[in-house]
Automatic annotation (TrEMBL):
Source taxonomy: Bacteria, Pseudomonadati, Bacteroidota, Flavobacteriia, Flavobacteriales
UniProt remark on cofactor binding: Binds 2 [4Fe-4S] clusters. One cluster is coordinated with 3 cysteines and an exchangeable S-adenosyl-L-methionine.
PANTHER family, per the entry: CDK5 REGULATORY SUBUNIT-ASSOCIATED PROTEIN 1, MITOCHONDRIAL TRNA METHYLTHIOTRANSFERASE CDK5RAP1
Gene3D superfamilies (UniProt xref): Methylthiotransferase, N-terminal domain, tm_1862 like domain
Protein encoded by which gene: miaB
Descriptive protein name: tRNA-2-methylthio-N(6)-dimethylallyladenosine synthase
Protein family according to the UniProt entry: Belongs to the methylthiotransferase family. MiaB subfamily.
Keyword vocabulary terms for this entry: 4Fe-4S, Cytoplasm, Iron, Iron-sulfur, Metal-binding, S-adenosyl-L-methionine, Transferase, tRNA processing
Boundaries of every TRAM domain copy: 414-477
EC number: 2.8.4.3
């Protein structure tokens, strides 16, 4: 199961093959969403050219960077604990170590970390990573360094991210940065700034490069991919002011998806995250048109209650969301659909909660990511509303939606039993070294005996059993058109 916030990778320290000329060591750890992990790969790429090789050994690091997340209070607390740990190592074994904070916590907590608590030497926001070499120089000269300026243009389109956390099969490709939607609970518009899109040409080049290096699947990544709009650069909100020519030649998400899928017919294409208010039916039509675009949509809804959706500023009703689901299923009957849900948003009543449960029953999501509301300073909800749903009530409601989701997940995985489905092999199964793990087009994990198959191959797997989240089966053949080249001997 591919998670928006993947708990199993939280805090991973990333390492790549070293460059012999580099003399300094960088330890970089990431928290939060996939976008943050992808940003860390961009940072490692920038610093590789500035004399740093990555290490997984904290004690030997010259520079320790932590890429932070602000989405919920828990994420902030985790990062704070890590900073305490780095400082302890610095005091005891490595006094020359420099410590820096990157990402979403940078803006809000910069003065706290730098001045009040003296926990860090360096604070860098998500749009300022190209400034890192200069900032590190300042730190080397004995100063503290900060750059948390959010940009109108920065998309790192010209930085080729090193692939730190990759299995060599699937990779993430950022296509937009920031978000303009201003959901009232969400800090992203404040921490990551206004929305801007990356040049389609640089996206196509990155995907091309990945294909040449043997990657088989890419996920186009953004806070709200459906809102992608390239008209020569600049903020999404300034599109109104663009010239007629710019408007006529603009590329939207459906166009981009079409271009990427057409240019790389042998690669699986995924995208995340979709937003119900911005997703258009032509995106679904493009999915239908190209066999290599996976039949899977991550479509967060957050609540099933119209009143709460309105308070959240989600810009769509429950009915409109259900119609969108119907339209998706009309065009792609077997489409995998997953959700993000927040329970306990201010003023949420038992009635609102029942609406959430009933919406879930209507959609029967394949899987989902469910959270208790966490008040974030600076957001509209924090400013205007009281966090008034008691902790115990939040806990119970969260458990209810998790239990219901597990039922639906099981219902969906069991529908696969008896079918033969195409799987891209990604890695060894966590539980058994004799089994491969891969995913269906719907993004459901399947596990099966390895036999003679290899990582990165597309195989047909007959599903014989299933747990709540995983399909179990046996490979029956290579997928059609993906047989390994046979040796021609005379
Ligand atoms: N569009 C983004 C959403 C970012 S946050 C994306 O690409 O995933 C991921 C999820 O965290 C949201 O969909 C929401 O369900 C949850 N979330 C965001 N702010 C939250 C808050 N204040 N409290 C609880 N959950 C929150
Ligand atoms: Fe956050 Fe809503 Fe954007 S959840 S990332 S403001 S779409």
């Amino acid at each position: 199961m591919e998670k928006v916030i993947d708990e199993s990778i939280q805090g991973s320290a990333l390492e790549l093959a070293s460059n012999n000329q580099n003399t300094r060591k960088l330890f970089i750890e990431s928290y939060g969403c996939q976008m943050n992990f992808n940003d860390s790969e961009i940072v490692a790429s920038i610093l590789e050219k500035d004399g740093f090789n990555t290490t997984q050994n904290l004690e030997e690091a010259d520079l320790v960077l932590v890429n932070t997340c602000s989405i919920r209070e828990k994420a902030e607390l985790t990062v704070r604990k890590r900073l305490e740990k780095y400082n302890a190592v610095k005091r005891k074994v490595n006094p020359g170590m420099r410590i820096g904070v990157l990402g979403c916590m940078a803006e809000r907590l910069k003065s706290k970390f730098l001045e009040e608590e003296k926990m860090v030497d360096l604070v860098v926001g998500p749009d300022a990573y190209k400034d890192l070499p200069n900032l590190i120089e300042e730190v080397d000269a004995g100063q503290q360094a900060v750059n948390v300026i959010l940009s109108k243009e920065e998309t790192y389109g010209d930085v080729s991210p090193v692939r730190l956390q990759s299995n060599g099969v699937s990779a993430f490709v950022s296509i937009t940065r920031g978000c303009d939607n201003m959901c009232t609970f969400c800090v992203v518009p404040f921490t990551r700034g206004r929305e801007r899109s990356r040049d389609p040409q640089s996206i196509l080049e990155e995907v091309n490069d990945l294909e040449q290096r043997g990657f088989k699947e890419i996920t186009l990544l953004g806070q709200n991919v459906d809102s992608y709009l390239w008209y020569g650069g600049g903020l999404k909100k300034d599109f109104e002011k663009a010239s007629d020519l710019q408007k006529a030649t603009a590329t939207n998400f459906a166009d981009l998806l079409d271009k990427v899928a057409k240019a790389h017919p042998r690669m699986r294409i995924r995208f995340s995250t979709s937003n119900p208010q911005d997703m258009t039916l032509d995106v679904i039509d493009v999915m239908v048109k190209h066999k290599n675009i996976c039949n899977y949509i991550h479509l967060p809804v957050q609540s099933g209650s119209d009143r709460i959706l309105n308070e959240m500023n989600r810009q769509h009703t429950r009915e409109e969301y259900m119609t969108l689901i119907d339209e998706i299923r009309k065009r792609i009957p077997d489409c995998g659909i997953s959700q993000d849900m927040i329970i306990g948003f201010p003023t949420e009543t038992e009635e609102d909660h029942k609406d959430t449960l009933s919406l879930m029953k209507y959609v029967k999501y394949d899987f989902g990511f469910m959270f208790a509301y966490s008040e974030r300073p600076g957001t509209m909800a924090a400013r205007k509303m009281e966090d008034d749903v008691p902790h115990e009530v939040k806990k119970r409601r969260l458990q209810e939606i998790i239990d219901l989701q597990l039922e639906h997940s099981k219902y969906n995985t069991h529908k696969f039993i008896g079918k033969t489905v195409e799987i891209l092999i990604e890695k060894s199964s966590k539980k058994s070294d004799a089994h491969w793990s891969g995913r269906t087009t719907q993004n459901t994990v399947a596990v099966f005996p390895k036999e003679y198959y290899q990582i990165g191959e597309f195989v047909m797997v007959k599903i014989t059993d299933a747990t709540k989240s995983t399909l179990l089966g046996e490979a029956v053949s290579y997928a059609k058109g993906y047989e390994p080249a046979t040796l021609i001997t005379s």
